[in-house]
Design goal:
By secondary structure, the protein is of the alpha+beta class. It has helices spanning about 40-60, 65-85, 135-145, 150-155, 190-195, 200-205, 210-225, 265-300, 345-350, 360-375, 395-404, and strands at about 5-10, 20-25, 30-35, 90, 95-100, 105-115, 120-125, 125-130, 170-175, 185-190, 230-240, 250-255, 305-310, 315-320, 330-340, 355. Helix 1 packs antiparallel against helix 2 (about 65-85). Residues about 260-275 and about 380-404 have low confidence and may be disordered. Bound molecules: magnesium ion (MG). Magnesium ion (MG) binds near residues 34, 189, 190, 191 and 229.
């Protein structure tokens, strides 16, 4: 059984013309929403969010119920901003504590937060911030890029990273509030937390005075400190608390799960056809690449000719002497020239094969080798009987002398 007492106050402040904050509190739910957006749209967004949480929580007072209510608020604000031009750009923070029921009907306090409105817990005069601000500067503090002191004056401390009404998907921090009887919880907009130091908030919020006086003191102090923004405070004091067991602390995304793949047979069928065409296209490309590779290798393998011995004669082969992959050289023709009719060095060269770019040049070179051998082979002496009177021995020297 959890019960609380409560008091709340909201104020336009000293600078703004309108109060765009919205608050609500009863025996089961406490909410602060800080609206933003020009042309009074901020108060529309914050009011929409509070109204939706209140109405939904009545029907479904559970953690999931409040998560769903925040999701609904986000959708409704986005739809309204789309349909109403003067509401374009509106949004709101939301911070809420609800007494949520578990599966056994036991109620315990649960905190929900989107944006930079804050929740503090007060015990024995000490103050602890329960919520994390979803602002650029505070995110950087959590990442270690800024100190809390630097964040407090950083120009991007007001730039929010999460709000309702901006994106279809919103992430909500959800955590159990672990409290004891006598503990107080303060929900407030940044118009209060920006104007007052944590020490002042702790002192005023935990003062041993009726809750109404405490919230009035808080709002008055924020006005006195400048009142540059709308100021809202909801103060709870637990009379009795049952804490959640186990406690929860998580960030939930309100994005809807994707539809099951078999939910739409037509879509499924389209996917099947697309898959088949993709496979056919991919296989065609692969086959073209393989075919081109085979063509290139084949061209290279048979792009040359060479001379080599085959059964005692010079033969002309087409291809690479050692073959390329499975393309082995093939014999084109035998020449009429015997290997024995080659000069010794040419014979050795033939053993190592002699490459030629074309068949004609290969045949021509074989003929050349044979001719070269013929020119250098020893002269065969034959004896012929001729009449002695006609015998003329013409040595070159003799010829030259005779001529001279
Ligand atoms: Mg504000």
């Amino acid at each position: 059984m959890t019960r609380w007492r409560y008091a709340a106050a909201t104020d336009t402040g000293l600078v703004r013309d309108l109060n765009e904050d919205a608050i609500f509190v009863n025996d089961y739910l406490a909410v602060v929403a800080d609206g933003m957006g020009g042309h009074a749209a901020g108060e529309v967004a914050s009011a929409m969010a509070v109204d939706l949480l209140v109405s939904e929580f009545v029907h479904r007072p559970t953690v999931e119920g409040l998560q769903r209510a925040i999701e609904s608020a986000n959708e409704v604000i986005i739809a309204d901003a789309r349909d109403t031009p003067e509401h374009f750009g509106m949004g709101t923070t939301i911070i809420a504590v609800g007494l949520t029921e578990d599966a056994h009907g036991v109620t315990s306090p649960t905190l929900f937060n989107v944006g930079d409105s804050r929740a503090y817990q007060l015990r024995d005069g000490a103050l602890r911030q329960l919520s994390e601000d979803h602002s650029v500067a505070e995110e950087w503090v959590r990442m270690g890029r800024l100190t809390p002191e630097e964040a407090a004056v950083h120009p991007r401390r007001h730039q929010l990273t999460r709000t309702l009404g901006v994106e279809e998907t919103v992430e909500v921090d959800v955590m159990s509030v672990i409290a004891s009887p006598g503990d107080r919880v303060l929900l407030c907009s940044d118009g209060l937390s920006n104007e007052l130091s944590p020490e002042t908030i702790a002192q005023l919020a935990s003062a041993p005075v009726p809750l109404e006086e405490a919230v009035t003191a808080l709002v008055d102090a924020a006005r006195s400190a400048g009142g540059r923004d709308n100021i809202s405070a909801v103060l709870l004091e637990f009379e009795d608390v049952t804490n959640a067991n186990p406690p929860i602390k998580r960030t939930v995304s309100t994005s809807r799960p994707p539809a099951a793949p078999t939910a739409n047979p037509a879509r499924h069928a389209r996917r099947g056809r697309r898959f088949t065409w993709r496979v056919v296209a991919a296989m065609t490309v692969i086959l073209i690449v393989i075919g081109a590779a085979i063509y290139v290798v084949h061209w290279y393998a048979y792009s040359t000719y060479y001379l080599a011995e085959d059964t005692g004669v010079i033969a002309v082969y087409q291809g690479q002497p050692n073959g390329v992959l499975w393309f082995h050289p093939r014999k084109v023709t035998d020449t009429p020239f015997h290997v024995s009719q080659l000069r010794p060095l040419d014979r050795q060269a033939l053993l190592a094969t002699i490459a030629e770019p074309t068949l004609a040049s290969a045949l021509h070179y074989a003929s050349y080798l044979h001719d070269a051998w013929q020119l250098t082979r020893p002269v065969t002496t034959t004896t012929t009987s001729v009449p002695s009177s006609s015998t003329t021995v013409r040595s070159p020297t003799t010829t030259l002398k005779g001529a001279g």
